[in-house]
Amino acid sequence: MNIEKFVQKFRDTLVNQCGVVGSSRILVALSGGADSMALLHLLKHSEMECLAVHCNFSLRGRESDEDEIFVQNICKEWDVELITERFDTTAYVTENGISIEMAARELRYELFNTICREKEIKLIATGHHGDDAIETFFLNLARGTGLKGLTGIAYQRDSIIRPLLFATSQEIIEYCNQQSIPFRTDSTNHETTYLRNKIRHQIVPLFKEINPSFFNTMQNNMEYLTEAWQIFMAEAVKVKEEMIAGTGDSLLIPIKQLNEHSQKKSMLFEILQPYGFSGSVIHNIADSMNGIPGKQFFSQTHRLVVDRYNLVLVPKSETDINQYYINSETEEIDQPIRLSIKTFKKRDDFSFSVNPKKVHLDADLIDFPLIVRTPNAGDRFQPLGMTHFKKISDFFIDQKLSLVEKENTWLLINNDDIAWVIGHRIDNRYKITSTTKTILEVSVMH
Amino acid sequence: MNIEKFVQKFRDTLVNQCGVVGSSRILVALSGGADSMALLHLLKHSEMECLAVHCNFSLRGRESDEDEIFVQNICKEWDVELITERFDTTAYVTENGISIEMAARELRYELFNTICREKEIKLIATGHHGDDAIETFFLNLARGTGLKGLTGIAYQRDSIIRPLLFATSQEIIEYCNQQSIPFRTDSTNHETTYLRNKIRHQIVPLFKEINPSFFNTMQNNMEYLTEAWQIFMAEAVKVKEEMIAGTGDSLLIPIKQLNEHSQKKSMLFEILQPYGFSGSVIHNIADSMNGIPGKQFFSQTHRLVVDRYNLVLVPKSETDINQYYINSETEEIDQPIRLSIKTFKKRDDFSFSVNPKKVHLDADLIDFPLIVRTPNAGDRFQPLGMTHFKKISDFFIDQKLSLVEKENTWLLINNDDIAWVIGHRIDNRYKITSTTKTILEVSVMH
């Protein structure tokens, strides 16, 4: 590697991509790993006024403390002011019910922002490199997070800059070695998820076999995608301004106007994704715009109703929040329990299931969306084989269910009827009869 | 799989994505494989007037002929008019110096177009499915073919429609099995390249481990990318009209105006890619727009000069065509011979190479771009160790080179000087001396 070229590229990136002009004050996120050590070294030797911050997440016992001591010594040697902070990450995880990666992220950025406010610093630099960006691209591609996700990692967003995105992880290590910069290796790497590792160690190497310059090709791909996304966003902003009524939590989106837009699906995606709708649900919403009105779709926080003239977006009501919906296109749900749903024509030789975990209902009686919810006081149904109603609570007693079993029982609801006490008994009204033409099969998956 | 849903989805795709209205006459490309057999069956049962065409590429001897007999029998049984044509593909490959896949493609589409003209048919249907589109996406991602390549395969382009793109390869086979449609399996699958197989059997399965619904996610990804590309193209067309002077083979692109466009790189990509410039060369052109004027870049057919005010694009002259260029950023070239190029600072302990395939030149004398070309009559240089000039032809005689060796010898040219008779001897003027500061290392790779 040509060190001078590398340093020049770093400085060009700092100016052209990160928008850093002249000698600025920069807060450097310093873990002690090769990326952040190279970052601090490069910034210091590019006439930047650096202040370092180190987060001790107390996740790797002695190793975490050794990292802290390591950066303290280096900063003293390099004459860089250092702020260190210890976090009880495990407690934070327990309190907030989030993943370790998410907890570390939240704690880190909260600290960074506090320091920036107190010290009046406007720029935070992180050591993300080009391989990180490629992995992010593939993660987002696999998850379907839309065009934005395919732009990789931004060189600059708000106060955060990432001037090492031009470099590979290997180039950074070479830089450290050539400049005799010491660095620590994180033996566990809590921030590297299982999926990221799969992409790093299995998927990317296969692409490099296809194209040895895959890193450069992906840098170009992501650059083009970023520019395409910018053009796209300009159009999306225009559409939002011209088309949509309502603000914040509730929106009215006129169906006719949206239909006339030649890029209606991606526009709808830009409008609805901030409200937590996934790519596939948005896809279904777009398809249902030209169907019979009345369909409903749900995100974690919002409900969207396709009415005659508008898509109506409102926050979920309290009742909604404890209800889970199954649309006609749904083939599987994961929440609150894993169910698989199929529809098929009844054949003459059909014999229905006697397994209480896999049931067959008369599909002609079903009116989507179906709802999955917990029992309410007073719920009644006609257990299979009976012609009169029985209270759910009595049914549970008959079945000798334990308290835990009762609490974990879910109901499948069709038009306010209990169609199935999931895992236990279907309603007699929904059973397959000689006149049934289409069958809905619902199974509990493991 | 729900057959009725599948058929409905096929018909929806035919209308909404392929723009087929009412009962149309369609030419169906019928190989006899599952995809094209399902396609013909679905089209026939969707009230389309089908005419089938089968290409016998004579690539698999008896198997090819059995395929032909198979589709003849099926078309008789299904009452579908069939046109068959035999090609001597191997001869076509030899004559045109192209790959088997390319030859099959050219022969096929030439035949399709002829039939469409003669029979006045406006639509050609091919059996490409969703898995093909995903593989195309990854191939183009790996090669860096720009945003367009990431839109996968189009449902409709000119007269060609691909109504099976919504389906997976497996769904198509299930459809064939459920409908008792016979099909042939191509044991060699000449049209499946090595790279496509790598993507199909190694890369896609890894993504499916990350996301079991990867097929649907990718369908959505490609749909969003297609819409983004449409918006992007509308902008690119506008830029081309407003900014560029000249037509066809020669263009003038004003640097200042292009610099002011916030998506200059992707705009430049759209402008230059049709002239055969690769993504990475276009990237370098964009970077050099703000540097010293005079840089030149080459595609197979065109030369681009960065002058003071404009990018000037002209067709390559005859001399250009037999010359290959090495720019200052070039690290490797593959054509006309494989060379690797490095620059580094001379250290005190430097000892230059005595290997005639790996040479060290004084980089301070080098003025990019370097040129690689064959010897011309009258070419002279100063062989290392000599202070006078010698004719190349005399040098070849001294070296006792065979005719074949002479014909395969290339020269590395710097500013009209021969700096290296590649693989044999450097020029004395370019040798490393005590005053050399920077070294250019050029090696012949195997």
Q: Quick check: average pLDDT of chain A?
A: 89
Q: What is the CATH H-level superfamily of the largest domain in chain A?
A: HUPs
Please report the first level of CATH classification, the CATH class of the largest domain in chain A.
Alpha Beta
Largest interface: A-B, 50 and 50 residues
Structural class of chain A: alpha+beta
Number of helices of chain A: 15
Shape of chain A: elongated
Portion of residues in beta strands of chain A equals: 15-25%
The total count of strands of chain A amounts to 21
Supply the CATH architecture of the largest domain in chain A.
Answer: 3-Layer(aba) Sandwich
Biggest β-sheet strands, sense, barrel of chain A = 6 strands, mixed
Catalytic activity (chains A, B): cytidine(34) in tRNA(Ile2) + L-lysine + ATP = lysidine(34) in tRNA(Ile2) + AMP + diphosphate + H(+)
Subcellular location (chains A, B): Cytoplasm
Enzyme class (chains A, B): ligase
Family (chains A, B): Belongs to the tRNA(Ile)-lysidine synthase family.
